[in-house]
């Protein structure tokens, strides 16, 4: 057994678990946080995506012991009391969900993706001016539909709610871009 202390949604939790317990299982089975879903258990579907120190990870492939002392945010920690996170509100407004199984992972992934974009991380479809080895300085360009789809491609939706998901992310990204100017 290993004693692991992690911060989850702002509260410190101490777990006595076997070293091979995944972060997903620690969240779901030991802490009762069932928002992150067990989809494929292979890191391919994104249903288990959570934020670790603000970066998106697939929790089914992460060992809980690896996250000793780290801050984990699950979908349960996104809202501020009764006030939903802007992405949660946008997902509802744009019908970015149907059955809802993938939604927690989609939301956490979108939050992490927007932070990556703000930090200037390129994607496979990011246009780079010729001859520049790095992304240009300054604010990142607006997120196009293709850019969002590429950056969110690790999160699958069996229902096909992608159009609503992209529209929700575009809405929040536009607001986010206005706030960073």
What can you see in these coordinates?
It is a single chain. The chain is of the alpha+beta class. The chain has two domains: 76 residues, Roll (Ubiquitin-like (UB roll)); 94 residues, Orthogonal Bundle (DNA polymerase, domain 1), CATH 1.10.150.120. It is 31% helix and 14% strand. The chain has five helices and five strands; from the N terminus they run E-E-H-E-E-E-H-H-H-H. Strands 2-1-5-3-4 form a five-stranded mixed beta sheet, with helices on both faces. A hairpin with a 2-residue loop joins strand 1 and strand 2. Helix 2 crosses helix 5. The longest helix is centred in the C-terminal third of the chain and has 18 residues. The chain is globular. The N and C termini lie far apart (49 Å). It holds the Pfam family Fer2_2. This is (2Fe-2S)-binding protein.
Summarize this entry quickly:
This is (2Fe-2S)-binding protein. The protein is built from five helices and five strands; from the N terminus they run ββαβββαααα. It is of the alpha+beta class.
Distance N terminus to C terminus?
A: 49 Å
Radius of gyration: 17 Å
Tally of discrete structural domains: 2
Q: Judging by the overall fold, what is the CATH architecture of the largest domain?
A: Orthogonal Bundle
Total strand segments? 5
The share of residues in helices is: 25-40%
Tally the helices: what do you get? Answer: 5
The strand order across the widest sheet is 2-1-5-3-4
Oligomer: single chain
Structural class: alpha+beta
CATH topology-level name of the largest domain:
DNA polymerase, domain 1
CATH superfamily of the largest domain: [2Fe-2S]-binding domain
How would a crystallographer describe the biggest sheet?
5 strands, mixed
Poorly predicted spans: none
The CATH top-level class label of the largest domain: Mainly Alpha
Mean pLDDT, rounded to whole units? Answer: 92
User: What general outline do the C-alpha atoms trace?
Assistant: globular
Strand content: 5-15%
SSE sequence, one letter per element: EEHEEEHHHH
